[in-house]
Amino acid sequence: MLITGGRIVDPGRFVGIGDLLIDGGKIVAVGTGLSGPAGSLTIQANGRLVLPGFVDLHVHFREPGFEYKETIRSGSAAAVAGGFTTVCCMPNTNPINDNQAVTEFILERARLAGLANVLPVGAITKGSEGKELAEIGDLRRSGCVAISDDGKPVMNSLVMRRAMEYALAFDLTVVDHCEDLHLAEGGCMNEGLVSTELGLPGIPAAAEDVMVARNLSLAELTGARLHLAHISTAGSVRMVREAKSRGIHVTAEACPHHFLLTEEVVRGYNTHAKMNPPLRAWEDVQAIKGGLRDGTIDAIATDHAPHATQEKQQDFTEAPFGVVGLETALALTMGLVEEGVLSLEQAVEKLTSAPAAAFGLKKGTLAVGADADVVIVDQHEPWEVDPGKFRSKSRNTPFAGWKVKGRVQTTIVGGRLVFETGPSER
Amino acid sequence: MSLKRKDLLSLAPLSVDEITLILETADSFKEVTGRDIKKVPALRGRTVVNLFFEPSTRTRTSFELAAKRLSADVINFSPSASSVVKGETLLDTARNIEAMQADIIVLRHSSAGAAETLAQGVKSSVINAGDGWHEHPTQALLDLYTIRQRGMDFKGLRVAIVGDVSHSRVARSNIYALTKLGAEVRVVGPSTMMPWGIEKLGAKVYYDMDEGLRGVNVIMMLRLQLERQGRALFPTIREYTRLYGLTAERVRLADPGAIVMHPGPINRGVEIAPDVADSLSSVILDQVANGVAVRMGILYLMSGAN
Amino acid sequence: MTTPTNRPTERKDDKLVMDAGDIARALTRIAHEILERNKGVRNLALVGIRTGGVYLAHRLVKRIQGIEGVQVPSGELDITLYRDDLALRKNQPVLRKTSVPFDMAEKVVVLVDDVLFTGRTIRAAMDGLMDLGRPGEIQLAVLVDRGHRQLPIKANYIGKNLPTSREEKVQVLLEENGEEDRVVISKS
To answer: Do B31 and C97 touch (CB under 8 A)?
Structure first.
């Protein structure tokens, strides 16, 4: 396969108009004036961007156990439609992915779907109960690329310390969902003026900050590879910046809703604005943007969390936390480029090489010899977010109706075309 | 001037004119409740449904009486938690009721925002009779009516709201209404029970009850929910009562003509001493009586053709 | 006779049908008729229908006092809650005060209104009175009867019979409202 004439943006390697030659599922050449063997597929990418396939460190694919919300197949379809060729799925399925059997099941379902690379994240503790370590070595051997109890934090600091120490042996990144469950107790949105006016129990920013501080201390103590999931507060950004300046091995991700929306979106008791961590105050959003710009926050992840319509139609306090994100992340990230917060190269990096590096994955790059995971994007194409057209089974997004720019046109995984924007979408 | 709203969910968006209209309309209905025949045909043939997901004899009876005195047909629905367990959503329950031609639905629910969710989903008018910690508009309106009935002018009136403010829908509705009408509102209670940013809503915060009551014209006591004790909000009832209970001594710190109010039910001996509850300065029973007239006024104003 | 000055509420094609003098004479005649028919002031009471009828009722009470030297009991009735069109209106009309501070049992209650038109207001007023007590007898006094009854209602005392068409509008303007006393017809 040959992709010609597009603007290749492979951060740190090749940035410019050029051609990409793919063979045997790998990138074989990057440059100008390339040509492929006779009979091979040629894609004209003039006027478009040619990027490494995006890497999402944080999705919830709900299979096994909650297939009515999403399956690995529907989630993979949503992923490639959004330009994500590699996704890491969290273990809070039913049963929890704390053993080889569930890991292998997930990998098999992904293989059958034949779309994105779905890489499982294994649980830190058995049943994600936070008490006893899961068989982390076995999880690694079966194919897990990181460990996390996401959905929940590991509350017990001693257990977290042991997990970090143990994971070192397997070169595994430990991911924590930073939330002190006691401080957050009963809360369903950010604790602030809006929660006071709406009469809703709040989750203070301190609930996240307290755990970020703890995790950074433990990372310093153990030397482990720590990754902080979906940070949302100014305090978190400040502490991560400080820790990095002292050489602590920590990476962090932020989600589009945390760099675009504030707690004001909850007004009217909008359950599509309910997620954990919650939408915060304006100052926090500015801090997240600052953290993305100066590299404190390494990656943009979606925390794609599908829920069925009737579940989100409940009262605000009852509705489950979470919003989908795979199919809107690119356009929303491009918004940061247009706003001048990130350069195009930085934005691409945050979706590709940086997340890959956080988990030690050989993905997110167009280097010669790398897997041929490529996405072709029209940076300026305008479109309107219509949840009815999502490939995901679920429709819970706070961005419905938004007019955005930046569309995935073609997605290639392992040298195979797995997604193309159809004529009906134009 | 009329109330051009489909629903009454919250006092925050109401204008001073709208609040005044409701209070003046209640005057006419107070007169009706003073007659021998306490009934007028204004809502004849209309159906008012009391949809109470949280039990409340007091408020429900008040609405029922108000609707019946307006000659409306009244239906009381008290879905137990079981219908929610069966998976029927609030909206489904309400649509069933709407299909029965309910003109007005009065909703009490334990979740903040339930009234708004309901109002968006049905064509009937919805009156919020209390949604979680959020608001209880009709209670605040009858509180205002009771204050007005005593000849007190709202501008510059010093009102102290005492107790668990963060969990109180009565407090929120009253803060919105009183500040709008120009009163000086104080909130008094332990700092664990003060919601974030309450001063931004126009209320001055006092942790010292004696200071908070000094010179006030109206003391509004909130009910202490005893079951909250286990959640580390205050150490013991004994300590709470000593610091924030209303005693005759504390009433004397207020303005000589001050009135004592309470939305009920009272925890005698906890937030309010028995002798104070029974004393002349207490208008608690007036509040209950005024509740029917105020709710008649609201039902009347909300009953225009939709 | 003074020519009325052009006021903002009046337009050029408004027709004056009663001036202050006409109104005064009509009220005086009605006061005498009430006393004649009821043989004096015994058990007599007047209730004005809001809003126009209230001022006229007060004036009648004064005239009766001038004739018989007795101030008969009087009251004011707001009929809004008894209207038959409440269910049809988008916005509920503003309520005004009702006050009938005397026992109506065995009394002859004369309802007073400014204009009698379809008769629905009087029907509502009678229902209202019945809810307040049990009057011995109800009579009706109006300043202007403009015809077009939709209910079988008749006034006992009429200031002026005024033939009108349905679309026309009859206004009774009174000093108590800050206007010069007069009755005008306008083409709606």
So the answer is: yes
